[in-house]
Amino acid sequence: MEIVSDINLIRIAIALVMLAIGGIFDIWKREVHDYLWVAFGGIGLALLLIEPEPMDAIYSMLFALIIAPITIIIWRIGLFGGADAFALIALALIAPQITLVESEVTPLTTLSNAAVLIIIPLIINVMRNISSIIQHEDIFEGFNETKYRKIVACIYGYRSKQPKYGFSIERKRGKSKRFSFTMHHAENENFATKPNTWITPGIPYLLLIIAGFVIQLLFGDLIVNGLYAITTTLS
């Protein structure tokens, strides 16, 4: 493991405190005020005053801010919320490309790690549906769908008896119901409230960002290291 400077340890600690506070609010209220990211981003900038090599830190920070336009575009598209975008920008100011291991990381590492982890909720959806089928629940009652679309639905969502923090993926078509796999805007669409409805969970993406950052610290970039491991094995 490489030697990590004291200032970088301070930056890591501040970043983890910021993400912990944001994660608590995201779970509790599903809303994180922008003041949090502005305040901690300001702290990240203020740390330049005690940097032993301030110009190197500024260059690293500016390079890390490549993430800013990317996250803003993703936010405007609706793939995640504004809090998630601002959290990643604040991270670029507080802990730009910092890791505790001898592994290359990029300005996109935390985001790409979080994207890889999105498979976990999909696995949970499948397990929920398998459990319901084993218990002989007719989770497709009233649906007129092909087996292929039912499989997709089992990956994309699940039938919730009392939905909370999830977006409806079923639509009424005549006397039957159909699945809708359209994209749900993370900020503009209302959560489903109707009982016994198929939903796709509204995942607090900030939790995936937190996990992605921790993985960056302890492992590096999941995609880059994974590809390197594969090419090394095949060579």
Helix content: 55-70%
Main sheet characteristics = 3 strands, antiparallel
- E-strand count: 5
Low-confidence stretches: none
Query: In percent, how much strand structure appears in the residues?
Result: 5-15%
CA distance, first residue to last residue: 26 Å
What number of structural domains do the residues give?
Answer: 2
What is the oligomer described by this structure?
single chain
Following the backbone from N to C, one meets helices and strands in this order, namely HHHHHHHHEEEEEHH
* Rg, Å, rounded: 21 Å
Number of helices: 10
Mean pLDDT: 91
Describe the structure.
The chain is mainly α. The protein has 10 helices and 5 strands. It has helices at 6-29, 34-46, 54-64, 67-77, 82-94, 109-117, 119-134, 147-156, 205-218, 222-234; strands at residues 158-160, 166-168, 170-173, 176-179, 197-201. Strand 3 (170-173) and strand 4 (176-179) form a beta hairpin. Helix 2 (34-46) runs parallel beside helix 5. The longest helix is centred in the first third of the chain and has 24 residues, at 6-29. The protein starts with 5 loop residues before the first helix and ends with a helix. The mean pLDDT is 91.
